[in-house]
Amino acid sequence: MKLMLHLIALSTFILCFCCKAKENSQSNNQITTPVIIDKSLTKIFDMSHKIDTAFVNGDILTLKISFFNVCKTDTFELVGNGKFAKSNPPLTGLFIRRKASNVDCKTNLTKELKFDVSALKYPLLNKVILNLDEQNKVIYTY
Question: What is the dotted CATH code of the domain comprising 32-141?
Answer without folding.
Answer: 2.60.40.2370
